[in-house]
Amino acid sequence: MEHILRILEKNCRMTPEQIAVMIDAAPDEVAAAIRQYEADNVILGYKPLINWEKTSKEYVDAFIELRVTPQMGQGFDKIAERIYGYDMVRSVYLMSGGFDLAVFIEGKTLKEVSLFVSEKLAALDQVISTSTHFVLKKYKDYGVVFDHVSEDERRVITL
Amino acid sequence: MSGFDMAKAISPVVKTLPPSGIRKFFDIVSEMKDAISLGVGEPDFVTPMHICEAGIQSLLKGHTYYTSNSGLSELREEIAAYMLRRFALSYVPTKEIVVTVGGSEAIDLALRALISAGDEVLVPEPSFVCYKPDAALAGGVAVPIETTQADGFRLTKKALQDAITPRTKVLILPYPNNPTGGIMTKEDLEQIAEVLRGTNIVVLADEIYAELTYAGKHFSIVQIPDMKDRTVVISGFSKAYAMTGWRLGFACGHSDMIAAMTKIHQYAIMSAPTTSQYAAIEALKNGDEDIEMMKDEYNYRRKVMVDGFCSMGLDCFEPLGAFYVFPCISGTGLDSNSFCETLLREEKVAVVPGNAFGASGEGFVRCSYAYAITNIQEALHRIERFVKRYK
Question: Is residue A16 located within the same domain as residue A75?
């Protein structure tokens, strides 16, 4: 049934009936499998991928490298939990390499993001250092190329 | 007035070749910018990036010269390894493989290497459109063998027996089949082999869609041990690796046959495009996962399309190969051409008349599923609306 996940990952608007045709299953079976995936937190949500650049929304995306001190018995989980609790934080990843946590933030202005980093993140006891990088342009997200005009260059009929 | 008449200079054989059966239809579709086309016979995927990069790197390294006539030795070695790995077929890269400009050139070479004036070439139909003209250009005569939906569009033992004459020189085996999506199983091919034993008929197995089968792996007639010497297998990179524009194919067969084909190839072409050959090496070394990814995607679409046609009440054979569905449209009261032209005019969906692939394709249309699912769903929706009006 992992075919269901692969299909939904590409297009979560596919209905159980449509998926059932694609994988030779009964619609009820597909619907039940999806419900189970949701209950097991395998499927965590269904969201459109929006190119906000094409809207009037004012926003700033930033990526913050955090070096932190892990806590005894809890490693990085406790500090990560503290950070992802903020609404401005879109994603948090524990990383290998030169820093510990990768934090993706969305704010309304540069000032709002800067204040958040200096007053909320840097102020946490376990945070050793922060390094903030503002996103200038998004080219591709979740496998989707932004601003890509999909034109079929093939001849309309070939035998 | 020089008194020169070019028309008189053109070979009578070329003059009598029929023009493409869909020329007029193609022109109408081309003019209609907002039509949804299910008429394309090539993958919708672009060539995987690692393969493109190998081509680019070869250019940057200055590999811009002719290769040997047979193709780069490294490529022929990789083709031999690929045929063994994917289809359990064993070929000697130095003398049993030639690299060509697409599978189409290989078909032309094979027929020219074999055919003398008046020799007959058996062509199961419906099938791809090049066999008949290639046979004619080589001086031969194509003899169509009708296949039917009832037989899964397979070549049957009886139909083959009935078609063989003392002039029969070549049997084309175009499976997995364009346009029907039909395949030949091991059991089917063993029946064919029975007929061929004791004859000197050469088999031209056009296996360009061999990687795109949906009910187990492709079985080649070459896997029947005593069929290997008489069979030349044609394949290529266009369908399996989404490399149509690179124009690269190959033929594998008896060393005498490959030597004869290479002789023609060296005079006509010199060598296949060098950049494409380097890209193909990468495809064969590291492209197996690409094939599986594309095949999975085609398989989803195939099921959507078959389900769609069956749901609208059209008789639709389940294709187990290639990327085409071949529904029967005779229940609408329209012939293949009228169906396609009216569908295009009324619903702006382009599909290909089945009779473009031989007379036995009349009453059918070819629909390609080398398109995004959303396109296929919209096209099916329109076709259903159309069919309801005519049934």
Answer: no
